[in-house]
Design goal:
Radius of gyration: 23 Å
Strand content: under 5%
Length: 209
């Protein structure tokens, strides 16, 4: 497949999980997603610059420094407002990439179940890491606010037992989840780089024939 054919093919067949796809179908589409992500980042940066005055005015309207910390640590919605195009682009391309990955496994005469499980594992680990990150931010926010209001309170998270335990726990969980994502990524890379079977198999005709 050419670059344009791969894009068209995967978008038209994003909800088709039967049949086979060659390696070119997946990797050309990955390139398309990467290039699109760069463009989306540039658009988000331009939009942020256009909204810089209103954003700065909003920041100036916050009376206390703790309110700024709470704005960014209190929840993920602020990040959706900062990078909407990038987030939308990423979400749109999840299904085409996933369905193409299933068809790629079929091209190797393999079931797509293992690929689906690994993708689910990577997704769950990402969601858990994000949730735990905001919980960690919340603890750090409480520490910063208490430290700012009470001069006798610890000035460093390493001097406060709750903050220290939260920091150690977050680093440990983040390390495990990062390892899970790394291993899952390597396995997916190997799966998608594998050559398909020559000729027809149980999932259909050879897409390169």
């Amino acid at each position: 497949m050419t670059f344009g054919e791969a894009i068209s093919h995967n978008l038209r067949n994003m909800f088709r999980f039967a049949g086979r796809d060659p390696r070119s179908s997946f990797w050309w589409y990955v390139l398309f997603v990467v290039v699109g992500s760069i463009v989306a980042n540039a658009i988000d940066a331009s939009l942020l610059l256009l909204r810089a005055d209103s954003f700065l005015n909003m920041m100036e309207s916050l009376e206390e420094p703790e309110q700024i910390l709470e704005l960014f640590a209190g929840g993920p919605w602020i990040y959706f407002t900062l990078a909407p195009v990038t987030i939308i682009w990423s979400v749109i391309n999840i299904v085409p990439l996933f369905s193409c990955g299933i068809r790629r496994r079929h091209d190797c005469d393999k079931s797509g179940t293992a690929f689906a499980i690994i993708c689910l594992l990577a997704l769950v680990s990402t969601v858990v890491a994000t949730i735990y990150m905001f919980q960690f931010f919340s603890v750090m926010m409480d520490f910063a606010m208490t430290s700012a209001q009470d001069p006798n309170f610890a000035t460093s998270p390493f001097e406060d037992d709750e903050a220290l335990m939260s920091l150690v726990g977050f680093m440990g969980i983040a390390s495990v989840l990062s390892l899970v994502q790394f291993v899952a990524g390597i396995i997916i890379l190997i799966m998608m780089a594998s050559k398909g079977t020559d000729g027809p198999n149980q999932y259909g005709e050879d897409p390169l024939a």
